Amino acid sequence: MLNNMLGEEDVVGGEPGEFREGVRMSSMMAPTIILEADGTVTALGTGGSNRIRTAILQVAVNIMAHRMEVEDAVNAPRLHVERCGTVSFEPGFTEEEEAALRALSAKAKAWPERNLFFGGVHVARWHEKKGAQGAGDPRRQGVAKVA
């Protein structure tokens, strides 16, 4: 089965093992490519179960909307909201942001440090003027080397 997603309730639906024979199983694998008008190309991806989409989205927003460099975008604190209402977040948010996250749910969970629970987004980027850039997520011991 793709990506061993047999226990992921939002992909399988219901209890693990309830998938139907002969039906291709869904996957949350989501390698992402961003093509900008100036020709900049950014490729990013991560492992992380149902946290893949939130990890990729947060890094992409950091790069595109906040205009962060790729390493800063990957290293920025992340959050994740589960269907059950749990709001998990890493350290690094401002006091006001953390208070707002805690106000979202009685099930808010502040993690004591960055954790691979929040994905491990790796990024490769090409910009005509800046050249190649890369970032490996330290949450998954990632590194990037540009030669």
Explain what you see.
There is one protein chain. Helix 4 links the parallel strand 4 and strand 5 (about 110). The longest helix has 13 residues, at about 50-65. The chain is of the alpha+beta class and about 150 residues long. The model has no long low-confidence stretch (mean pLDDT about 85). It is about 20% helix and about 20% strand. It has a domain at about 1-15 and about 25-80 and about 120-140: Glutamine Phosphoribosylpyrophosphate, subunit 1, domain 1 (4-Layer Sandwich). The strands form 2 sheets. Strands 1-2-6-7 form a 4-stranded antiparallel sheet. It is globular, with a radius of gyration of 17 Å. The protein has helices at about 10, 50-65, 70-75, 95-105, and strands spanning about 30-35, 40-45, 80, 85-90, 110, 120-125, 130-135.
Care to give the gist of this entry?
With 147 residues, this protein is α+β, with helices and mostly antiparallel strands. Helices cover 22% and strands 19% of the residues. The longest helix has 13 residues, at 52-64.
